[in-house]
Amino acid sequence: MVSTVEPLEARRLLTSVNLLTSFNTADGSSPVGGVVLSGSTLYGATSKGGGGIGGGVVFSLPATGGAPTVLTSFNGVDGYYPEGGVIVSGNTLYGTTEQGGSAGEIFSLPITGGTPSLVATFTIASGYSPIGNLILSGNTLYGTTSGSSNENAEIFSVPATGGTPKALASFPAYSLSNLILSGNTLYGEDVGNGTSIGDQVFSLSTSGGNPSILATFNGTDGSFPTGELALSGNVLYGTTVNGGTNNLGVVFSLPTSGGTPTVLASFNGTDGEYPAGIILSGGILYGATSEGTGANNAGGEIFSLPAAGGTPTVLASCNGGVSGPLILSGGTLFGTTALGGSNNVGSVFSLTITVPGSLSGIQSTAASSYNLSTLGATDWAHWGRGGAYGNFDHKAAGNSQISNVTPVGSGGYGAFTDSTRNVSWTDGTPTASDSDDSGYIYANNAIGAGYSFTVPASTTQHTLYIYLGGYSAGGTLTAHLSDKSAPDYVDTISSSTNYTDLVAITFNASMTGQTLMVSYVKSQTIGSAGGSSDLIAAWLEPTWLSAGSNATWNTSTQVLTVNGPASIIADPGTDEPIIQASGSAAVLTLDPTSGIDIHLGGLSLTSGASATVTSLGSARSTTNYHLLVIGTPGATVAPLYTIDSTSTLDLADNDMAILYGSGTSPLSTVSSEISQAYDNKLWDKPGLTSSIAKTSNGVTALGFGEATTLGLSTFDGLTLGGNAVLVKYTLTGDTNLDGSVNLADYNTVVGNLNASSQTWTSGSFDYSGAVSLADYNDVISNFNQTLANVLPGGSSPALATTAPAAPSAQPASPISTTGSPPHKKPAASSTRSNPRE
Asked: Do 631 and 601 touch, CB atoms closer than 8 A?
């Protein structure tokens, strides 16, 4: 038997961006910091233009496009030249101005507009000209300056409520990239200033100190690193403007522990030049180059690249040059250009992502029998039951995703039986079950005679298995995507005797609503017997699911029904299954192979069902874990989310974000589910639980809160794109979910002591709704500790360095100094509701 496969060819998916607005100088010019999205509104800043001195503006813009609304124009008194863009927290925007005050400023501004409020001003001594994007974590802002009194670039922190910037680290560098934050660690890049130091990737504790140099570029693996890093698990992704094979820039990856950068792609000019910044979604990297090729040489190109590396796919050309970081919401990228637009002074654009299609196959000798119910979680089909032509059986709950066949060409069509070709099923229609059925359909006589059928295709990969055969003939199998986003897969199989094969076709389209069309026809006669090409069965399953007959996946409704043990083994991505598991036999394991996001459209666990997000065990770190994402950013309806009183969701040591957009908040639901499971630190009841916290003797727990209350627009590297309820495996006492227990948490507890109707973010760590002496003691026990201390390889948390004195009167107000907590405990409450001693 001989099998040949046609080679694949490279493809370029080129389109145009959607121009959302063009600036006209009066409403701003030269936006260089990108935009942020909150709900259905974009916010950003232009570095120039506006009224008065033309010192730049802060603007808002509908995500669908239109004229920008100027929220404020900088006049010099309140700073000017906001080059770092803005961030949004609740109803407040934060940003920086390169100039103003002594040497630049940080401002806050209501999202409705008005006069900026001064958060901090810089001096030559403390660092000058803040130009990068800010990061907000809890009540602390982090950012970078381009210089200081010793000409070094610096990383700083400052309270969001105002104060003096604190220098966390100083770099003898020409510039620093935008920072990213994971737990208590900042990551960034620096560009050398002509000394032997520079062109590095570094990490830095949020408390400051000496940065850890993770990698130094040597030119071959890149040079001049700029833009924003992306983080997934324990791997960083980034870009360098120069270096690589053609000195036109590279995309690289790097372990968070450091090492030699891995070059994922070197740009060659035809796919763009000089990349700056990267974002990651669903295993695909997206970025932009500052220059393109040919007529677009002065513009730039937006590209995608598999996170494993390869050749960049150019998605769109963008006149004016992309400035600032891209953001991704749902299937849309948003960004800014410093030039271009109708007036050549800048624009805001969007791009609906066209995911590169893929289509490949693997052919192998088939087994003599298959259980279709076990194999076809999504759907299955069998042709020729009992040797009768026209018999078509398929999965009863499969929604007929694998279609019936259509004859191709002209020739002899029929059905027969063969004892070496057996299939069984127990969940079929019109025949409910069958055992070792040996029927199949064939096409003989004429070359080109055979059959075709279709299955749906989307942007998420699926695998179609085709059980086929032949006799004294060659057969050609062809698979074709309707959007032509990948070359056809063609496999020719031939034998002079009887044969059976199994062909596994893995595929995804570049957009939803597409079709994979499959045909299998006779292409060669071998010998004098005439020969035939035979089709027996097919089954379909997503590559992210391992369930056998214990689950049914309906691609039309996006519902995954679980009735027995099943596993999600990879991120479902845009499939976003709405999981409905019911009954004690329904045991779902969410177990991707590394620390990645797991995207679900909804989750319902009822009647004793259970789901577990698997811990990474010894590989678990502050950057390597799973984030369970339920819902879609900016949704208008909250996702299905329920865990009834008999069912369990075990997050172990992982996190969860429920994105509910403008729908109803699930905060109270989450609160009651955790409260039920907690059981006075035992974590032994149904509900939303943590099997890892159960073994920690109260040191760790599941913290939770509204993203707006916490002031977070991102969580674990995920852009929330609107309202969300966040759940984090963290230290007991971590009110702001930043992975540490410090003075801010202490002040929160003291400020709410003896209050009722409170939640975790207010200091109710036993989920009782009251803040009590026990909650105070939890903060003291974990004071000055971080989550890294209790993870594998960390040290066990200890009591505060100075033990508090015996209980006395409650402090009159929260303490606002730094350092250790005061040495007096508040009095126990006599009105505490539902005490748990």
From this structure: yes
- Three state DSSP letters for 122-191: CCCCCCEEECCCCEEECCEEEEEEEECCCCCEEEEEEECCCCCCEEEEEECEEEECCCEEECCEEEEEEE
Q: How many CB atoms lie within 10 A of CB 684?
A: 12
pTM: 0.57
Nearest to 85 by CA among 76, 77, 73, 94: 94
* CA atoms of 482 and 517, how far apart (whole Å): 7
Q: How far apart are CA 732 and CA 734, in angstroms?
A: 6
- Confidence class of residue 528 from pLDDT cuts 50, 70 and 90? low
Q: What angle do CA 832, 836, 837 make, to 5 degrees?
A: 105
> Could you tell me if residue 574 is left (phi over 0), alpha (psi between -120 and 50 degrees) or otherwise beta?
alpha
Close Cβ partners of 328 (under 8 Å, ≥ 6 residues apart) = 279, 281, 286, 334, 353, 719
DSSP count for the chain of H helices, then E strands: 6, 67
Q: Which two tokens stand for residue 409?
A: 């060409």
Which residues lie closer than 8 Å to 696 by C-beta, 6 or more apart?
790
Higher pLDDT, 175 or 731: 731
Whole-angstrom CA distances from 717 to 229, 597, 630, 704, 761 are 11, 10, 15, 17, 20
The pair phi, psi for residue 549, each rounded to 5°, is -90, 10
Side-chain-side CA neighbours of residue 657 (13 Å):
27
Task: Report residue 826's pLDDT band, with 50, 70 and 90 as the boundaries.
Answer: very low
* CB environment 92-107: b (16+ within 10 A), e (fewer): bbbbbbbbbbebbbbb
Q: Among candidates 574, 579, 580, 452, which has minimal Cα distance to 513?
A: 574
pLDDT digits (tens, 9 = 90+) for 701-713: 999 999 989 988 8
Could you report the per-residue pLDDT of 108-145, keeping only the tens digit for each? 999 999 999 999 998 877 677 888 889 988 889 999 98
141 CB-near residues (< 8 Å, 6+ apart): 94, 106, 119, 134, 135, 157, 158, 159, 160
Quote the CA–CA distance of 537 and 393 in Å, as a whole number.
9
pLDDT digits (tens, 9 = 90+) for 554-568: 766 888 999 888 889
In the prediction, which pLDDT does 317 show?
A: 81
- Cα angle for residues 579, 356, 635 (degrees, 5° grid): 40
